[in-house]
Amino acid sequence: MLILSRKVNEKIMIGDEISVSIIEIRGDQVRLGVDAPKTVKVFRQEVFDAIKAENKAAAESKAALPEVDFGGARREAL
């Protein structure tokens, strides 16, 4: 993990296209601004964890499809 010190209005660059700006420091909270391409998804950690958990639950659940009776014997392939 890289640890950096920054002051208000200073930035950190991640690659060529992502910057993180220090917007405000108030007590024990820091407000950050993230400037990234629209193709890069940016989430708070707790939101990211919730999305991962939902995706995992959806992948593990099996869609229950009802049995369909077409009202007759099955046709054999010729």
Describe this structure in words.
With 78 residues, this protein is of the alpha+beta class. It has a domain at 11-60. It is 21% helix and 26% strand. Strands 1-2-3 form a 3-stranded antiparallel beta sheet, with no helix packed on it.
How are the SSEs placed, and which strands pair?
Blueprint (H helix, E strand, L loop, with lengths): L10 E4 L3 E9 L2 E7 L9 H16 L18
Antiparallel strand pairs: 1-2, 2-3
Q: Please compute the radius of gyration using only Cα atoms.
A: 25 Å
**Structural class determined from secondary elements:** alpha+beta
What's the tally of helices?
Answer: 1
Q: pLDDT average, as an integer?
A: 88
Our estimate of the beta-strand percent is 25-35%
Overall body shape: elongated
The counted number of beta strands is 3
Low-confidence stretches: none
| Main beta sheet | 3 strands, antiparallel
H/E element order: EEEH
Strand order, sheet with most strands: 1-2-3
State the share of residues found in helices, binned by percent: 10-25%
User: For the terminal residues, how far apart are their CA atoms?
Assistant: 65 Å
